[in-house]
Amino acid sequence: MKQDLGLILEGWKYNPNEVTVRKIVGLDGLEKIQMRLDLGVLQMEISGRPDGRKPHGHESLLDYHRASLERHRAKTGDVEDFTLDEDEVSDLKQEAMQYYYRYLSLFHLEEYDQVMRDTERNLGAFDFIREYAR
User: Fold this and answer.
1) Helix (H/G/I), strand (E/B), else coil: 4
2) Separation between Cα atoms, residue 37 and residue 24, nearest integer Å
3) Mean pLDDT, to the nearest integer, of 53-70?
4) Cβ atoms of 48 and 59 closer than 8 Å
5) In the sheet that 31-37 helps form, which strands lie side by side, from edge to edge?
6) Fewer Cβ neighbours under 10 Å: the N or C end of the chain?
7) Burial 112-133 (b: 16+ CB within 10 A, else e)
8) CA–CA distance, 123 with 119 (Å, rounded to integer)
9) Adjacent-strand bridge partners of 34
10) CB–CB of 6/16 below 8 Å?
């Protein structure tokens, strides 16, 4: 299998003055979003977590931490001592960056309902961090 991205990048020029995005069909038969950057391409899933991962079996890391909060509430009866440590906050911020790149791409593709979906998701992530970060 050839892994050089040169063929992809050759026919898709990078313009630093604009956001360059497109939709493609992946090898799995599903639509994907690609964003052209100066050093290459970001490829994202259209729904779910942009990188396609399922952290701890959840749709996103945020969903995992929200489920952890609910388990904590069920066990202790409140959320007073539930906290996110520095690494957890950092990981949530990194995940939010993935969603940011996707909603920026979706904006330029004029997929506004999905822009709202991801933007609202990130606002919820920031609220969660603000509420529970140590």
Assistant:
1) coil
2) 16
3) 98
4) yes
5) 20-25, 31-37, 40-45
6) N
7) eebbebbbebbeebeebbeebe
8) 6
9) 22, 43
10) no
